[in-house]
Amino acid sequence: MVATRLFVASLFTFALGKPMGRNLQVHETREDIPTGFSLQGAAPPDTTLKLRLALVQPNFAELEQKLYDVSTPSSANYGQHLSKEEVEKFIAPSADSVAAVNAWLKENDITAQTISPAGDWLSFEVPVSKANDLFDADFSVFTHDDSSLKAIRTLSYSIPAELQGHLDLVHPTVTFPNPKSHLPVVSSPIKAVKTNDNFTARAVPSSCASKVTPACLQALYGIPTTKATQSSNQLAVSGFIEQFANKADLTTFLKKFRTDVSSSTSFTLQTLDGGENDQSGSNAGVEANLDIQYTVGVATGVPTTFISVGEDFQDGDLEGFLDIINFLLGESSPPQVLTTSYGQNENTISRKLANNLCNAYAQLGARGTSILFASGDGGVSGSQSGSCSKFVATFPSGCPFMTSVGATQGINPETAADFSSGGFSNYFGVPDYQKSAVKSYLSALGSTNSGKFNTSGRGYPDISTQGVAFEVVVDGSTGAVDGTSCASPTLASIIALINDRLIAAGKSPLGFLNPFLYSDGASALTDITSGSNPGCNTDGFPAKAGWDPVTGLGTPNFAKLLTAVGL
Predict the structure, then answer these.
(1) 291 is an active site residue
(2) Which value, in Å, is the radius of gyration of the alpha carbons in the chain?
(3) Catalytic site includes residue 520
(4) What angle do CA 36, 40, 44 make, to 5 degrees?
(5) SS3 for 396?
(6) Coil, strand or helix at 27
């Protein structure tokens, strides 16, 4: 390998005076081409690659400690969330790492841009030929058999030995795109239903067993209809893959299902990566409308923002998932709740990349944001239903620093929705807050599904709400939608309304929820003990007393949650 110029300082050369790029060590590799992809051949040498470097975060363990310290009810520092500057001090790469990476970049005539608030992510462009030399890689063209999507990737890459401990990963390299990775987590196509506008009683109407509206959720979980009072309390809804939230449809929805609030109630818009929010009815997104209608329409009076992530990604195959977190980390006052109804299978991204994104959730959690994700709609077969022999974990639900939301259905009693993705991560171990719950479940499960899942992995989901037959307005028509994507915005609304009461009482918002949910909050949840999430030619996991990998700890009770938080 020939470097474009030598770096003078002996610290970054090796004994024989060779550039650091000569002494390479394999950094990430995958054994084979992912299922569904075919190798087409070598990538054209002059094709430009946009690569990202993630620098090591040397003090992340201390940040993790701080996250739990401010998120655990029994801690003296509970609720004392960190500032932007405090988080960045923990995440910023060391001076040595910055010097080492900059020296390597300079040696190879590369100019990089910083793309994260803490300076731990860099981006640059090089032709394939140079990338192959720099990383001892074999960048090739791979085609996804079903979609014909083409991607330039390598099955292995190396980095200079002198950058070990300084450079965490290079992306995109061994992580392949997944055409289904960020599809909305919606099980059924929208279908027309007859509506009933008179759901006003607090008793759960029997019709809620077959179709769900805001009034059903209010009655079922005790959600108040009174307007929130705290303007500083913010609820954010993420939007991807050109899913647009339509304001006219929201107005129609409120006129049908929330006659007690002004039909002009709306949301604010933030954009990044070239995002927009097209208001033509034909471009109204089922997912985006669902998320907005069941936040604005349930979290009465809570200021709600739709964050539209475009397709000018800075994070490659993460398709805006890291970009939106970096965007919010760059704000002095990020939203107190963020709900996302998109996800992917854990095995589609590299362990290092998954870990890095998971750490970003810890950063935002330490700032005081509750991060909620739909767990997925494939039962034990992953984010979407698919063929499998071993159970497929979903991401980011396996990350211990966010809250994974599963789905239930029916009333009197609620049961697990059979599509509710749940299981155990293959990348992340069981966090301390969950150890007792997971141990109890595995003991009750016995030998069922033995060998099909990782018994030492972080279990998910953490909690559930209704997720079947939600009435949604799209392009003027009312229809029904199923999915854990119904559950995540519902829970987000409940948490936002709890936060409103906390802030009004001079207290901190809940922030990272899980340590609370698995301790003081557990008594405020209704345990779901029937149903399962089949897949992979099995019945999946059965719901049982206590936590289970179908419905988590259960469904929320607003009044009991208020008591649990000391209100």
Answers:
(1) yes
(2) 24
(3) no
(4) 135
(5) coil
(6) strand
